[in-house]
Amino acid sequence: MGIKIITDSVADIPKEIVNKLGIKVLPLTVNFEDGSFKDGIDITKEEFYEKLSRCKKLPTTSQISPGDFIEVFRPLVDDGDYIIAILMSSKLSGTYNSAIAAKDYLKGKNITIIDSKLVTFPQGLLVVEAARMVLKGYGETEIIDKVLYMRENMKCKFIIDDIEYLKKGGRLTPSQALIGKLLNIKPILTMNNGSLIYEDKVRGKKKAIKWVINWIRKNNYNLKETTVGLFHSDNYEFLMDLREEVVKNNDINEIIESKTGAVVGTHAGPGCIAIAFVT
């Protein structure tokens, strides 16, 4: 008997952390024109971005089915474990509802399903903290309360490098995308109540990084008492530029780096970088 932390592949938690903390990750499915692939199992992040760069039509993703959750939940419930599943935003996928359906089917009193209202590594930070608390001996109530607190106090910003993928996804018209490219526009996105939304735009990478540094400074965010997530969609060099400035301008407790996978990669495209932390 124990507490088991479960999440989906959208959380983009580095594999070494997944293995160290005993986190169970269920994959979404990535659908390209030439086939469907289990995220992180049938296709690596490197392979995903290589295929993304060559495809004319953006891939789609399929949610985890209730049956997939039942297959994972049932043996844990039978063993007397308490399950805490922390999943991607229910506004962006039906995965959360699939998990609820699986819980109802199993009549699982010892299953808590949490809508993180986040995606990629902001979601992952919730999962990592929950798994760390399990290893420290905390009970399920304390862990759930901490995750819910973190969810409501998560700050994150995404810098989009290549707006071509916003055009492909229908978020920009062709004329908007053309003007944006000519002006070297870098949109800045954030998460708000489960949705990924536009917040601002600047011209050029350096100004985008400066925008993030000024945002941290203006709000007096204290990074010394929190874990900072830095993550990218196949643009590590750009991420290191951001890391250098963040470290130079702040006292930081811990940094975890991650690479985003199919969901954010599809919509934001290669080149996106982001930062997340709890205040």
Write a brief caption for the model.
With 279 residues, the protein is α/β, with parallel strands linked by helices.
Question: Which descriptors would you attach to this protein?
Answer:
single chain; 279 residues; alpha/beta; Rossmann fold; Hypothetical Protein Tm841, Chain: A,domain 3; 6-stranded mixed β-sheet; globular
Q: State the CATH topology of the largest domain.
A: Hypothetical Protein Tm841, Chain: A,domain 3
What is the CATH level 1 assignment of the largest domain? Alpha Beta
Structural class by SSE content:
alpha/beta
Total beta strand runs: 13
Which blocks of ≥5 consecutive residues have pLDDT under 50? none
The helix/strand order is: EHEEEHEHEHEHHEHHEEHEHEHE
Silhouette: globular
Question: What can you tell me about this protein's structure?
Answer:
The structure is a single chain. With 279 residues, the protein is an alpha/beta fold. It has two domains: 3-28 and 63-151, 3-Layer(aba) Sandwich (Rossmann fold), CATH 3.40.50; 154-278, Hypothetical Protein Tm841, Chain: A,domain 3 (2-Layer Sandwich). The protein contains eleven helices and 13 strands. It has helices at residues 15-21, 45-54, 66-78, 95-106, 120-135, 140-152, 164-168, 174-182, 205-218, 236-249, 262-268; strands spanning 3-8, 24-26, 29-32, 35-38, 60-62, 82-87, 111-115, 154-159, 185-192, 195-203, 227-232, 254-259, 273-278. The strands form three sheets. Strands 10-9-8-13-11-12 form a six-stranded mixed beta sheet. α3 crosses α4 (95-106), α5 packs antiparallel against α6 and α9 (205-218) runs parallel beside α10. Pfam families: DegV. InterPro entries: DegV, DegV_C, DegV_domain_contain. Keywords: Lipid-binding. GO terms for molecular function: lipid binding.
